[in-house]
Write a structure and sequence with these properties.
By secondary structure, the protein is mostly helical. It is built from three helices and no strands. The protein has one domain. The longest helix is centred in the first third of the chain and has 24 residues, at 6-29.
C-alpha cells in the first residue's frame, strides 16, 4: 500500500470494507464463494500499490463471484 498517495489509501480502505462485508455475509450464509472473495478483497490491497491495479483486481474478483454464482 502506498502511504504517500491519499487516493491509494482511500481505495484500499473501500476495497477492504467491501471485503469485510462479503466475508461477514459469506460467514452468515455459509457461502464459501463469498467468504473466499471477502478474504481476498481484505488482504490484497496491502500488497498492491497501483490504484488501477487495485480496482482491476476488485472488479475481477466481484465479476468472477457474480459469474460463478450465476452458474449454479
Amino acid at each position: 500500500m502506498d502511504f504517500s498517495n491519499p487516493w491509494s489509501l482511500v481505495s484500499g480502505l473501500f476495497v477492504g470494507f467491501l471485503g469485510t462485508v462479503l466475508f461477514m455475509y459469506g460467514k452468515k450464509q455459509q457461502n464459501l464463494k463469498c467468504l473466499g472473495t471477502g478474504v481476498v478483497l481484505c488482504v490484497f490491497p496491502y500488497f498492491v500499490t497501483s490504484i488501477l491495479l487495485t480496482w482491476g483486481i476488485t472488479a475481477a474478483c466481484l465479476g468472477g463471484l457474480y459469474a460463478w454464482s450465476r452458474g449454479d
